[in-house]
Amino acid sequence: TLELRARLILDCFTNTWANRGSSVHILSYDRGKDAFQKCFPANAVDRIIIHDAFGTPDKYAPLTWVKHFSEQKEPFTLVIDSLSTALIYHQFEDVYVSLLCLLRKVESLQLVMALLHTDVHEEHQVSKLRYLANTTLTVYAHENEKLAGCKIVHRKPSGRVLREDEEFVLTADLLITDIKKVVCKKEEKPVAQQVDPAANLTFSLRLSDEEKAAKDSLVLPYIKRSSAGRGKGEITYVMEREDDFDEEDDPDDDLNF
Known about the structure:
Protein name: Elongator complex protein 5
GO molecular function, one term: tRNA binding
Number of helices: 8
Region (Disordered): 237-257
Number of strands: 8
CATH topology of the domain at 6-133: Rossmann fold
Largest sheet: 4 strands, parallel
CATH class of the domain at 6-133: Alpha Beta
CATH architecture of the domain at 6-133: 3-Layer(aba) Sandwich
InterPro entries: Elp5, P-loop_NTPase
Distance between the termini: 113 Å
Order of helices and strands: HEHHEHEHHEHEEEEH
Radius of gyration: 44 Å
Keywords: Cytoplasm, Nucleus, tRNA processing
């Protein structure tokens, strides 16, 4: 991410908030106060307050963040530049808990913007920090060097997640212009041609007209043709010598009960 101008995008957001009249506090671990004064236009510098953690990181330890920023009575935006450097000096658990406390306990805090170089941290740490954010912006290299690309994931209070891909131009005076949504083109899957099972065989599976006629006229051994006229049934029984023929209607008729 160091090569993808993520910090420049962060500076553009900072400049935008300052130009809107908002008070912006920058907790800087990566740059000194003089660097910020040279970076931002004069009309924006007056509304930006620098908390110099670059020279004194221990003074702005994560566990002191709530104490420092609770003193602010006016609504303000907090910019952390960057969380990656803060994690070099301090434990991940301290940074995570302090971010959570900032969001819950500092009443005048309206927005927190933080820069994180995801390629220098463990995946589970990045996932936990993303969980705290309502919106994450992932910068990527654009084919056009004059453009910057950004994938946006926004999580609404209802739990619905919106995903967008945008491209834009970053100007020298820290403005974001020509914002366009990137439409993802669905790749059409090639239709697989059905293979003919009869192809490349040494014999033919298909019948000619003459062969079909011969097949239909063939009478198989187990097929009997229906005979004309109505059929009838007959049972023939030949008595044996041992058979006893009784002419009486009821053999038990002479019994008295």
